Every structure is written in C-alpha cells, then in structure tokens.
Amino acid sequence: AHDPAAARDAVKDADRKHVFHSWSAQELIDPLAVAGAEGSYFWDYDGNRYLDFSSALVYTNIGYQHPKVTAAVQEQAARLCTVAPGFAVDVRSEAARLIAERTPGDLDKIFFTNAGAEAVENAVRMARLHTGRPKVLSTYRSYHGATSTAINLTGDARRFGNDTATAGVVHFWGPFAYRSPFYAATEAEECERALRHLEDTIVFEGPQSIAAVILETVGGAPGVLVPPAGYLPGVRELCDRHGIVLILDEVMVGFGRTGTWFAAEHWDVVPDLLCFAKGVTSGYVPLGGVAISPAIAETFARRPYPGGLTYSGHVLACAAAVATINVMAEEDIVGRSARTGAELLGPGLRALAERHPSVGEVRGLGTFWALELVRDAATREPLVPYNASGADNAPMAAFGAACRKGGLWPLLAGNRVHVAPPCNIEAPDVAKGLEILDEALSVADAHMR
Ligand code: PLP
Fold first, then answer.
1. Average pLDDT of the chain?
2. Which chain regions cross the lipid bilayer (predicted)?
3. DSSP code of 344?
4. Taking the model in full, what pTM does it have?
5. Which region holds residue 368: left if phi is over 0, alpha if psi is between -120 and 50, else beta?
6. Which residue among 252, 257, 280 is best mutated to probe the pocket of ligand 1, counting the most ligand atoms within 8 A of its Cβ?
7. In the chain, what are the domain boundaries?
8. CB 51 within 8 A of CB 433
9. How many angstroms separate the alpha carbon of residue 6 from the centre of ligand 1?
10. Is the CB of 124 under 6 A from ligand 1?
11. Ligand 1 in contact with 143 (CB < 6 A)?
C-alpha cells in the first residue's frame, strides 16, 4: 500500500546522506520533502499545501506544471532531446527569435547559457573583449550569481566566503532612498547623488580601465530595489560618455516579473548586454543567456568569440522557452503581473503596513514586492542585523515559521519578506496570501522594541 510517511522518510534519508545543498552548513539544515506542485501551490508528503509567494527562487513565473509547457517539453523529448550547439535547430532558432523580439531596443542576438551566473560571466567576458578594458563596476546591494566572477561582482554577504578572485571588480553604492547611503531626503536627491557617486567612482578608477557597469535593473535579492526615475537613464548617459558597456542583469526581473517583459522598459533604457535566465522557461528546464547589441556582436563578426558551453541552447530547454513565451503571450501573463501589482498586491501590502508597525516600507511593482521589517519605526533599525544568523536572526525565523504554519511559503532575505508569487497568481490566492501575512506580521510586531 502507498504510505506517504514512508515515502517522505526515504526521500529525506537519501537527501541527508547524499545531497550536498547550496549555501548551507550541511548538518544544520532540514529540507522539506516536496511531493508535488501545481499553479501557485506545492505540497509535502504530510498533506500540507503551501501557497508559494517565492515562485521557487523567483522563477516559476507561469506557476508550476503549466499543461501547455509540460506538453511541449514531453513532445520535444520524444522528438529530439539534444543536438550539439554548433548546429542550427528549429526550437533554438525560434527561442532566440522570440527573445530578441522582446528584449529592449536593438538587442538582437542571443548567446544561450545554462543559467544566470553563466550569463553574467559571458556578458562580462564580452564587455572586456569588446572594450579591451579590465574592470567591472557593480553595486554593493546586488546578487549576480555564484561562479567565480559572478560571486565577486555580487555585493551582498554571499561574497564573503569567496574573496579569492576580486581582480577587476569595483563596488559602488546604488540608490536606495529608504536607507540612503547618500543621506538624501528625497528620491530626486537620492538619484542625483547616486549618479554623482558613480561618476566620481568612474573618474577615480580611470574610465579607460572600465569595461562595464553591471546593474540589476530592479535589485532582486538585495530587496526589490526600484531605482528612482532618472537613475538608469543617468547611468546609460555616463556609460555612453566614457565608452563603458552597460550590462543589465535581468535574471530575476525579466519575463514579466515587474509587469513588463523586461524591467528596463519601465525607464526606456536599452543596455548593451542584457542577462536573462529563470523566467525564460519558468525554470521548467534550466536556461539562461545574454542578449547582445549590434556593436558588440560586430566585435565577434570576424574574430572568434572565445567562450562556449556544451549545452549552449540545449534543445529541450529551448523548447521549454518557446512554449513558456507563447503561453505568456497567449494568456497576457505580463499584463496580469502588472495589474496584480497595481490593483491587488500594492494596495494590499500597503494596507498591511498601516496595521503593522514592524513594516517600515513597502516597495515593488508587478508581482515583485518587499516589506522592509524594522525593530523601530522611527530609527528604521532593521528587525535583524545585516547578515544575521542563529539567535540574531530569531525574529525573522519566527516570522517565517508563522507564514509556513499559515500555509504560505515566504521568501525571506535579511530583514525583509519578498513577495514574488507566480505572475499569473489568481486574485483569491493573492487575498489568501495577504491574510496569512497579516497574521504572521503580528509575530514581527511582537519583536519590536
Ligand atoms: N543574477 C541575478 C539578478 C539573480 O537573481 C541570480 C539568481 O538568483 C543570478 C544572477 C544567478 O543565477 P543562477 O542561480 O541561475 O546562476
């Protein structure tokens, strides 16, 4: 007979014995065994269902198990699983065409990778070769992936265990009005001072040594940092003035997350290189890539590009991308993301902030939001310190436990809860998630001074 408890124990036992998990002290973790998933929900072996406000790691933009995409992957698997990257093949051509059609401006050529970090690695390599310059500038509040170059470009604390290959990386401060590094009082002041700080950094590093500035269009892991109106156009202008390549990392925010196909559209900015991954296949099969400007593509028109991957443009992944993009277009999932943000999530989260003093700020757009949790509303002291663990992190751990107990899987980062459900989440599920957050925030309130 089918015994879910025995199945769960077998899964967990082999996991504990043989699976080495990311970012973890292996003996200090206790991973939940997941039995299945559909739409905005996943469930365990004990009958607990979780409303997924994290979209896995912010990638199931169309929810779990969309039948059109699972069918397309099955059909492709039966027809042709793989061919070498050097051949031209139907689904790869079509995936590249569909992506190029949607990326901003004249970004028209697609280099496919397996995921986000490799997209960043290759964008940086292209920028260095195109300019002949060594340095890359990135912000402290950023995450760009976990390979050697990408983790050192990363500004957040995940970089700390990896400070071995920092050559050529320079960090600067991006705008963040709520915790302004520039002591700015308004968004406009924050924008102006952040641009002046970047310009000073460029001048003092030496523009002739700088290949690229890389930015998350909207900072994801660092806290849903929506830039002030003039910031990205200002960075674009600085890059143009100094011959620096602008790389926008849209690994987390591309493919509908912010209510547009790509977040750069909100500010009408066209980068020279754009990194994508996650949402391109809703994560059903791993895929990432770099969209490339004509000028950079031209650099490698008659000179070989010195980079490549066995699985660049993997056929099964490209089939998933084609199906995902078509489903997003047919079901207006990008528009739904925008409307869910404007009509439900934004107002709903702001209403929670009115009721809960621990919510210091609500920010976001589309299906991409964060609540900044504080110990003290006046001083804005974070509910837990930067890079907290163990007892220091207890208030956030208690808040997370309350969410999960209510049936909501939250995405927690530092002193924040990020709200990133599937872009096609249904209205009743938004309401349900907000209700659970409402209860859990009382736990956060209780940890204030
Ligand atoms: N860039 C950004 C903005 C990300 O959010 C991530 C992952 O979360 C990455 C890059 C790295 O992507 P991957 O984990 O697929 O290598």
1. 97
2. none
3. I
4. 0.97
5. beta
6. 252
7. 4-62+332-446, 68-330
8. yes
9. 35
10. no
11. yes
